[in-house]
Design a protein that fits this description.
Length: 372
């Protein structure tokens, strides 16, 4: 702990507060270094300074620690990525690893607290010059890299390894705003009519809930609350949502009728034959014959699109369709955000333009009693 030391001088003594400061070395080890703090020549003032120092030291120890931080690569590999692996789903974790490892290679053997805004800007320039499969890297991809880097530094701040996030001063690249592709009522009719019993289940649940591909595959029967007519999207040891947050999705009358049958029966992924569920198939709504969750249903979905002559769509189009039709029915953007599980309403605002017709009807109500 800190103590006061008097050092004789030529005319008068000088008082120092001596304390040990933990310093993290580049290899990650921590050593204690003795520090001397000059508090003047007056003994009474020196004692007062010591009392104030001890109080501040006890209240905020992190201020007196970690003057040197670990290498950026060491922190990423030993702290940040292990944290990501325990918190993110497999796809998100793989994407984080790809982005962060690119930055580790670009920045080289630099300490975590030595990374500057200029270095990050240089990375952005370098990243934009790279190509994947002869295609230029999109601004969205680069922005995702910056999101992961900022997340890395936010965790370092939370864990008291650094004090500042250099990403805060880096501007995101502009992303072109394209129109959202969603299925029309006519296309939905074609798809449902052309769907076999196996893929029809995914189609109905996806269009009725707006759930992500991974959420559909990991939906458990226990999460379907028929009494309260709600599907509970929850995080557990086997599955993590993209945002890491739980949410509830009300079950519509249309979906309710289908869910009653889906929970009692099972559709074979290959033969599409519908059979009563076995005890092994009582965990997941969509599963294989052994009751294990399916890896994907994309191949069957794209076969359906081709069969129904519906183009320019993906599995995610079901999610866009759910949100788009809600907005066109007059549902608020805030409600749609909650149903989709978006962490920020700015993401949900991609659907805002679809409500323009309803805004016109609302504005027409403003006639001030026919005055004028």
């Amino acid at each position: 702990m800190a103590f006061l030391k008097e050092v004789p001088g030529k005319n008068k003594p000088t008082f120092y507060i001596i304390y040990k400061q933990p310093v993290r070395q580049p290899n990650g080890t921590v050593i204690n270094k003795k520090k001397w703090l000059n508090v003047g020549h007056v003994k009474s003032n020196a004692h007062q300074a010591l009392r104030a120092f001890k109080k501040e030291y006890d209240a905020n120890r992190s201020k007196f620690t970690l003057t040197q931080t670990v290498l950026f690569s060491t922190f990423v590999n030993e702290s940040f990525l292990p944290w990501c692996k325990s918190r993110k789903n497999e796809k998100e974790y793989a994407r984080t690893c790809h982005s962060i490892c690119l930055m580790v290679g670009f920045f080289g053997p630099i300490r975590l607290n030595d990374l500057t805004t200029k270095m990050i800007e240089d990375y952005v320039t370098w990243r934009k010059e790279r190509k994947t499969r002869d295609k230029s890297i999109s601004n969205r991809t680069v922005n995702i890299d910056l999101i992961y880097l900022s997340q890395c530094y936010n965790k370092a701040i939370e864990w008291e390894v650094v004090e500042n996030n250099p990403c805060k001063k880096v501007s995101r690249l502009k992303e072109p705003k394209s129109r959202v592709r969603f299925f029309s009522v006519e296309e939905i009719g074609h798809l449902i009519f052309a769907a076999n019993p196996y893929i029809k289940r995914f189609l109905i649940v996806g269009l009725s809930t707006g759930m992500r591909h991974s959420e559909l595959l990991n939906l458990k029967l226990s999460q379907i609350d028929m009494v309260n007519q709600t599907i509970h999207i929850t995080n557990d040891e086997t599955f993590q949502t993209k945002s890491g947050k739980n949410r509830d999705i009300p079950i519509s009358f249309f979906l309710m009728d289908h869910l009653v049958q889906m929970m009692k029966t099972w559709a074979h992924p290959i033969t599409c034959e519908v059979r009563p569920r076995t005890s092994a198939q009582s965990t997941y709504l969509f599963c294989n014959e052994k009751g294990e969750p399916l890896k994907s249903f994309k191949r069957s979905f794209y076969s359906l699109l081709a069969h129904a002559n519906v183009s320019n769509a993906t599995v995610h189009t079901m999610r866009h369709t759910f949100a788009s039709h809600l907005v066109m029915k007059g549902v608020s953007i805030r409600t749609v955000q909650e149903l989709l599980g978006h962490s920020s309403i700015s993401v949900t605002e991609m659907y805002a333009h679809l409500s323009s017709g309803f805004k016109k009807k609302e504005i027409d109500l403003l006639d001030y009693g026919g005055l004028g």
